[in-house]
Amino acid sequence: MELPMVNVSTCKLRSVIRFFTAKNETAVNIPRNLVSLYGEGCMSIQMVRRWRSWFLERRQNVHDDERSGRPVTATDNAAVAAVRNVLEADRRITIDEIMIRQPPGIEIGRSSIGTIISDVLNIRKFCARWAPRLLSENHKQQRMEAARAFLEMHRRDGDQLFSRIVTGDESWWNHSTPETKRQSMVWKKLEENAPKKAKVTISAGKVMAIVFWDCKGVLMVDYLPPNTTVNASRYCKVLTKLRTAIKRKRPGLLSRKVLLVHDNARPHAARTTETLLENFTWEIFTYPPYSPDLAPSDFHLFPALKLHLGGKHFANDDEVQAEVNHRLRRQDTAWYNSGIKKLLQRYQKCLDRNDREEFRNSCTKNSSHSTRPSEVSKVCSLWVSYSLTDEQMTRRVSWCREMLKKFDNGSYRYVNSIITGDEVYLYYFNVHTKVQNKVWMFEGESTPVSAPAYRKSRVNLHTSDPETIDVTYEVESAEPSGQTRQKRDLVHVLRMKPYHNPADQVELLM
User: Fold this and answer.
1) Cβ atoms 92, 437 nearer than 8 A
2) Measured by CB atoms within 10 angstroms of the end CB, which terminus of the chain is less buried, N or C?
3) Cα–Cα distance, 328 to 322 (Å, whole number)
4) Per DSSP, what are the bridge partners of residue 212?
5) Cα–Cα dist 15/24, whole Å
6) Which helix or strand (DSSP H or E) is residue 347 part of?
7) Who contacts 77 (Cβ-Cβ below 8 Å, separation ≥6)?
8) What is the DSSP letter of 297?
9) By percentage, how much of the chain surpasses pLDDT 90?
10) What Pfam families does this protein's entry cite (predicted)?
């Protein structure tokens, strides 16, 4: 005799009841048949008789009927609208703060808020990207003017322009440069432990070098003596050496008029320097300030050289100079040529980026995100120095359009192109941390930007704006480690808290 079947689904038991009901089995025989087939306790006699009566009434469905149940209130339209309104009012708000700021009559749990944010509003969280500086309107105008001027020169001279360019800049070279994170990667087996690496800081010993180069290679490298700086007089002497090097290494270049590409540092823009360059009859092209992406030495030469020096240790300045010279001589002409030709595509990219910004801003102004609650994402602000107004953005785009009208669409297709210390300043107004700077951003909006805060380093109690008063809390340099941790905790407590009275902050510090 076979054992009774166990673990049978309820729907299958109901199907068997429907079968016996169709065979006109009595209400006494059907439970006996179920017990013989599926064992004791498969279904109560009362439930068997109830389903038999329903099947006699011509019911065919063996599944439970849908029931309304408890109404869904945690994620209904009112709850979603409440969460959305709170997010729109404060883009930096957290989930805990949303629970506190719920409107009257609406109670939403923490898990329900998370469900609304992630499932209903489709929000994602990103970490902020830091930018070193937000360009002012004047800086952006200089970028546009420089891009327009360079592209105009290329349209006029073609690829011959690259052979006239001589560029250079200054840079520090340390005796010990830490290797990058990518350089320290190693292959390991599955059963091996991950390697450990101690934190290394840049050495104090260093030497400054002024490097000038063109599309064919390095023209000259000038190393500054210790305890000296680059001033106008020194820079003029370097330019005189550069002219001699060009005459010796690039015959005929002086007669074709050198195009000197350098930045607007004070020694470079001094009157004595300008007078010397006028006597040389050189053409000067100054790339815009705070634009390392448009300086060939900053985006091509120096990064590759510093990458090569990563992880190397030198005993003195002579060893550093010898290694730098050796690396510069090993690079072939094609490598230097590609660095000069990258200028064209980078200036063109500078203009194209403004067209994309204008298109994105126009789409944002013509769309209303209040009718699309399901398309929301949370991104971090881009850290920059200043924020542009709508008028400034309009003028920026108009410059790009004016410049692009002067060029043919196909004229460029052939181009190949750590700090430690014992003191801490506590301010009346403390800026956001990187995590606090995260904001909620709806789809269609431009990525927000945030500028780093610049504050004075001394107490100033005579300012008209109380938020700019700075408070200094001095601590002995040989303090115990417990006080060091206390300072760190105080800084965390003071984050984003304005203090309008010196006693407010001093009381907290004491």
Assistant:
1) yes
2) N
3) 10
4) 168, 220
5) 14
6) helix 333-366
7) none
8) I
9) 23
10) Transposase_1
**How many angstroms separate the CA atoms of 493 and 219, rounded?**
55
Task: Output phi, psi for 498, to 5 deg.
Answer: -80, 140
Helix (H) or strand (E) holding 174: strand 165-174
Closest residue by Cα to residue 47 from 17, 88, 5, 4? 17
CA 126-127-128 angle, 5° bins: 115
Task: Please state, in angstroms and rounded to a whole number, the distance separating the CA atoms of residues 378 and 369.
Answer: 14
* Rounded distance between C-alpha atoms, residue 177 and residue 306, angstroms: 8
Residue pLDDT, tens place only, 382-402: 444 455 677 777 787 776 776
Which residues neighbour 494 within 8 Å (Cβ) at sequence distance 6 or greater? 426, 427, 430, 505, 508
Dihedrals phi, psi of 421, to nearest 5 degrees: -175, 175
Cβ(38)–Cβ(5) below 8 Å: yes
110 Cβ contact list (under 8 Å, min separation 6): 95, 96, 99
What is the reported pLDDT for 241? 93
Handedness of CA 74, 80, 86, 90 (dihedral sign): positive
Report residue 497: phi and psi, to 5°. Answer: -120, 115
d(Cα 282, Cα 419) in Å, to the nearest integer? 43
Residue by residue, DSSP assigns 410-427 as: TTTTT-------S-EEEE
The bridge status of strand 424-427 relative to strand 206-213 is unpaired
Tokens in use for 327? Answer: 């690396």
Tens-place pLDDT, residues 290-347? 888 889 999 999 999 988 888 888 888 899 999 999 999 999 999 999 999 999 999 9
The CA distance from 249 to 390, in Å, is 51
- Residue 483 has a pLDDT of 41
Q: Measured between alpha carbons, how far is 478 from 122 in angstroms, rounded to an integer?
A: 51
Q: What is the predicted pLDDT for the residue at 481? A: 39
State the DSSP string of 236-274. HHHHHHHHHHHHHHSTTTTTT--EEEE---HHHHSHHHH
80 three-class SS: helix
Give the integer Cα–Cα distance in Å for 509 and 88: 35
What was the pLDDT predicted at 60? 87
Burial of 47 (0-12, 13-18, 19+ CB in 10 A): middle
- Ranges in the chain, pLDDT < 70: 1-7, 67-74, 125-129, 354-388, 399, 402-437, 439-510
Dihedral (C-alpha) 201, 204, 210, 215: value to the nearest 10 degrees?
A: -20
| Of 474, 471, 451, the residue nearest 463 (C-alpha) | 471
Task: Give the distance, in angstroms, between the CA of residue 65 and the centroid of all CA atoms in the same chain.
Answer: 53
Largest CA-CA distance found in the chain, in angstroms, rounded: 119
